[in-house]
Amino acid sequence: MKQTVSIILTILALTILIGCKNKTNEKTENMTPTEKLKSILIEKYVSEDGDEYKVELKEGLTDQQIDELAKRLPTGQVPTEIRGLLKFASGFEFFGLEEVTFDGVGQFGFEEFFPHSVQLAGDGFGNFWILDVDKNGNWGSVFYVCHDPAVIVKHSDNLTQFIEHVNDFGKNGNKSNLDIIHEKVVMDIWIKDDGFIELETARQSSDTTLKNFALSLPDNFVVADLRNKQNQSGFAWGKFGPNIDKAKRHETELIWGIEKQVKKGLLSRLFGR
Hints:
By secondary structure, the protein is α+β, with helices and mostly antiparallel strands. The protein has 9 helices and 14 strands. Strands 6-7-8-9-12 form a 5-stranded antiparallel beta sheet. It has a 4-stranded antiparallel beta sheet with strand order 10-11-14-13.
């Protein structure tokens, strides 16, 4: 009897915990980036050295500064909720990351994969979190771009969720989405599942968008498709070498084509074939 009661109580506790977590996720999804940022200003965190710290905001931008920033975006416009965020704060300081910035438009480069992006943060080792901006000016998903190993991972669905993931990192350390991606997921993608679809498979897909993109690529390419994928999904962008000059990005979708370079024999290298 006692064992049955214990099991029932455990199930109830788990149900309540899952319910609370779902409500928290729903609340975050409905927040603007500014609302999410304001909500974590009251939080207190403890560093690895035991020092307490809080979010330290960077000064907001003026309307004129935001208008200048907009000129570097594909439509020349800043979305209304992002304009509100930039006026409130241009970023914030957070222990364990280089400063988080919301105004790093066009700073990242890597245009073969992200023609328009906002550099949000770096880890101090040459790896970055960037936000993808589509050709219609929409601020979309956040990606972690790692160079060693050379992997791209979908990190957050949007900027609001990224701010929550930073908060989660401050609270939960190595159990957080940010730390798991940084320390484990990149290696899993590099070693276990590089995230690529063979070109012929993509060309025969019933998905018209994927099929047409694959048909536009040369025969020595592979495809990466992160549409509608969960966070922690990604692909090993450097699996076939560091030369990405021929990499192609779908005009509107999170689909990429990567050249699968063929190793040349000695005679081919000697005679340039």
